[in-house]
């Protein structure tokens, strides 16, 4: 399909994808900084408000398996515009909301729109560009999809302090409206479609599987591990995950082709992406809590602490793509996971007397690690499957890493809260900081596992044999 497009048309499509990606990706983490004022205005607790972030990830995790079917079934342009329209609807609902249920409804619409846009963007990019340019192009895409969520807390903090939290949705709405109009003019049907039958049973199983696991883990923070509110959805999710997997391997036309996990390199890319998101989303939620709740600074300062890291990621991501094209994944994997260890271990040693710019420096190191790993892992994973299975490979990888991110944010906030509560008698006013330190120590352990995978399991060459079903 890529031979039918001129370089100019490719550039216009790619640019439009970047614009919509920036706006949609920013809303995935913007709530972390805006959560305190939103919780106050809507009269909800912080733990309830946390669902504006983790619930968003949950909805994305549920919609992502469906995108593989949609990409194969619907014309590219129609699906892309539908994703933008869904996201715009969610922005309007949240912008006008005056209660938590309405706000949460808007966030679900945004998550569904973002899930569609993320999946189709990656498949389009990987399909319209030649193999020798995929790493570089995905690096630039990673700048948008990776840096935007990190920039979002900075921008959100400024908007909250200068105007109010509704301005966050207003700004994103303006950008997405422009993106929608441009897409109507420049986007093309660049992917092949097929008359594939919709397997409703598999879709329903995927909803309960991904939703149950994430909901159960998320409820640990609120109810504890032994509460029925945690155990019931968790058990339901695990059981339906097994049934869903069995069904995909049993039917002739799977809803989501899990057989691609048999490829070792793709499987490693999935595991690496899940661990990265598990750690990344946990730290993205805890960092604003450190600045605002522990250090007592404003939302603007909280955002500014992450700004240098955003710039570092913007610089690293395109270069990481070029390095991938030339050297392969191993060098990036080792470097990124090592930097992730350093940044999280550094935050473990943070005290109340540590200058706040030290936290900003550790965040820069963390963002360099993310820039080295995020998009190269996706590119590397999809390199090892046939072009006809790229939609399944991308949807599965993004689904699992999104779920891992939602679990990470819930788990690490839960660790921080639990440790703070149990150590309040010993640490007093420093109990919350102690909980934060322990949470980052647990993230360090996850980063060590990631480093071990990079050293012992990732091969030096860029590509093995392409896997076909």
TrEMBL record:
Membrane-topology annotation of the record: Multi-pass membrane protein
Keyword Transmembrane on entry: yes
Domain of life where this protein originates: Bacteria
Bilayer-crossing regions: 12-31, 51-71, 78-96, 108-128, 140-160, 166-188, 200-220, 226-246, 266-287, 299-319, 331-350, 356-383, 395-418, 438-458
GO cellular component: plasma membrane
Main subcellular location of this protein, as a coarse class: membrane
InterPro entries xrefs: EmrB-like, MFS, MFS_dom, MFS_trans_sf
Alphabetically ordered keywords of this record: Cell membrane, Membrane, Transmembrane, Transmembrane helix, Transport
Residues covered by the Major facilitator superfamily (MFS) profile domain: 13-462
Pfam families assigned: MFS_1
GO molecular function list: transmembrane transporter activity
Location in the cell: Cell membrane
Protein name listed in UniProt: DHA2 family efflux MFS transporter permease subunit
Source organism (scientific name): Candidatus Blautia pullicola
